[in-house]
Amino acid sequence: MKNKNAEKEDLARCDIGIVCALPIELSAFMDRCEKVNKYSGGEFVFRGGRYDKIRIALVESGMGFARARRATQSLIEAHAPAWIISAGYSGALQPEIKLGDIVIGTSIVDTHGHELKIDMNMPADPEKGLHVGRLVTADKLVRKADEKSQLAEQYKALAVDLESLAVAQVSRENKTPFMAVRVISDDRATELPPEILSVVGATGSVRWGAAIGAVWKRPGSVKEMWQLRELAQKSSEKLASFLDGIVHQLYQSKH
Questions:
Q1: Are residues 203 and 62 in contact, defined by beta-carbon separation less than 8 angstroms?
Q2: Where is 161: in which H helix or E strand?
Q3: How far apart are CA 29 and CA 124, in angstroms?
Q4: What percentage of the chain exceeds 90 in pLDDT?
Q5: Which terminal residue of the chain, N or C, has fewer Cβ atoms less than 10 Å from its own Cβ?
Q6: Which sequence spans correspond to the domains of the chain?
Q7: Could you give the angle at the alpha carbon of 111 between the alpha carbons of 205 and 16, nearest 5°?
Q8: Nearest residue to 160 via CA among 223, 92, 112, 219
Q9: What is the CATH number that goes with domain 4-190+236-253?
Q10: Is residue 134 a contact partner of residue 155, using CB atoms and an 8 Å limit?
Q11: Is the pTM of this model over 0.85?
């Protein structure tokens, strides 16, 4: 017979652990889950729920490599997931990759020469918006078209984000199977408004004081930021639809 501590430990374990930077990235997916609860663990916000019979635990890391490493380690220590997914937004680096397309990483490189290859055998289907290949993890938000072009040329990558390599490294260190799933929130030609750097804080929360200040300095930013939010919500829905199939496949691979 199990003791009470063992029972609590079993309840804490999850089937799929997800690391995202911003709450909006996985909001549509978590809306599809049942019995969702939210709690704070150390410096991070966690959400847990059931997707059918699959136990999901999500941690919001905030933006950047260091936060993503700490959040992934916290997720593993708290919930011992059988799989970890780095999921969220990314910027397209190739012209054929469109807004709302999905990119699966088979290798992840950073701008310091580190690379981690991922054993992920999934066929690409560009006509249906599914791309499979290399991701690059940058040190800062890449918002200009010429910066995307430079990264594409230098690293031959499909898309750029800020966290995937960090999540992959910690998963590998803890011998936890890993997958990177990214939805394109801005294509190669799109330039993000400069205000985004000050409005979105490192933890992923919206800094309303900075938002008001941005509007005061450049009234045109209101329309740009609103359009950006609408695109982000649509991207979140696309990501949720793709994860619907993925979480079932990953769950079945362990059962």
A1: yes
A2: strand 159-161
A3: 22
A4: 70
A5: N
A6: 4-190+236-253
A7: 50
A8: 92
A9: 3.40.50.1580
A10: yes
A11: yes
240: Cβ–Cβ under 8 A, 6 or more apart, which residues? Answer: 26, 28, 29, 31, 32
pLDDT at 218 over 50: no
- What pLDDT digit, counting tens, does each position of 163-217 carry? 999 999 999 999 999 999 999 999 999 887 765 655 454 444 444 344 334 444 5
Structure tokens at 91: 């910027």
pLDDT of residue 50: 96
d(CA 178, CA 86): 8
Place of tokens 């009470």: 4
What values do phi and psi take at 69, rounded to 5?
Answer: -65, -50
Task: State the Cα–Cα distance between residues 232 and 185, nearest whole angstrom.
Answer: 6
Are 142 and 151 in contact, with CB atoms under 8 Å apart? yes
Strands 178-186 and 102-110: antiparallel
Indicate if the pLDDT at residue 75 is higher than 70. yes
Short-list 200, 189, 97, CA closest to 144? 189
3-state secondary structure (DSSP) of residue 23? helix
Amino acid at 247: V
